[in-house]
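User: What would this chain look like folded?
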Amino acid sequence: MVDWTRQTGSFFGSKKGKGKEKGSVKPKGKKKKTSEVIIREALARNYVFFGDEGMAKIRDSFVIVVGLGGVGSSTAAMLVRSGVKKIRLIDFDQVSLSSLNRHATANLAQVGTPKVLSCADYFESVAPWVEVDARVELFGQENAAELLDGKPDYVIDCIDNIDTKVDLLAYCHQNKIPVFSSLGAGAKSDASMIQISDISTTFEDPLARSVRRRLKLKGVLSGVPVVYSTEKPRSDIGLLPLDEDEFQKGKVDELSALSNFRVRILPVLGPLPAMFGNAAAAYVLQMIAGFPVEPLPVKNRLKAGTSILRQLTASEERLGRSPKVNLTEEDAMYLFEEIFRARAVAPPYKVATKPVMLRWQKNGEATWDNLVLFERDEGLRHEENCLKGDEDPEIYWGPEVTQLVNKRFEEEKRVRKYRL
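Assistant: Here's the prediction, encoded as structure tokens.
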């Protein structure tokens, strides 16, 4: 029987590598210099794309990748294959059997080996002319300065822990270190929904929402480019059960695409992390080379806000109220995305595919603290019974819905000041 806790099949797992489980891993000896003719031929397609000037910048660049899982390993692999001069890999985690469906470099023999060492081993065989600095360490505020030293041209965040992710992004932003972040690839399957944008304009992604909020608390409102997916969270994907001790660790629903699940137990379709990683690498390479890159904005986002606002205005007219609602399309999207998470307040609390926003209390105003999100059919019921009729919404919808609505209103009051 194989002991999966032991490192096998890599010089990093040999006797020479013992005792180096933490910190920077030293190279195994002086490298034999690779002929420039070979390097130029290996990078020939890149030279045609970027030109001599752009490639000179890339070949003189230093990039740090933090988090070497499915996304980070794919990012690092493409950076190495594209000719960066030096790459630093930072991750404390080890290759597991479940990593093999998405990790770009790991093989079965490396189960139990630190992920950064799996990457370094592979990169040595692909591009030995690239300087690889593998750090088996956990990034944190206390060691940020040490791990990010050396004036990197770019830092790429591929971390799946929200606290660490926010600390890294805030540190880079505050210290003027160019940074790019990968958001949630878990439980996603539609490659056509992958987008690149500034963190301030992301939507649909629960991880993006949480990161955006926490960065605002640290004074970071924008200026962090990210790759994410606009695919709506799916409720038909089976997830691993959450142990009771996980609930004791904090707000378990904050990172999840579905309530009460942490990101790390979301199922992952292997190709998606690789696509996120390749998107990150492509963006950073173009930025380093000075190559024009203008990510296409998501056009449907403001259309959704316009549609919600138009239906709210129509409802106000039907109720004999003034059609001039004191909200903008951005305000509508703020409520839709940030406060209601695109989910209707009435059971089964699903993602609203035909969203409508209506007053909650008939006698209240159409303001942020009296507007709720419904699916269209539920909205028609609410309007007919509680807005045109005299039903008390708290009685009509019951205590569970009322509790959720009040929770959303309280949350809106708390986060309103952090809006852009």
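DSSP finds 14 helices and ten strands in the chain. If you want, I can go into more detail on any region.
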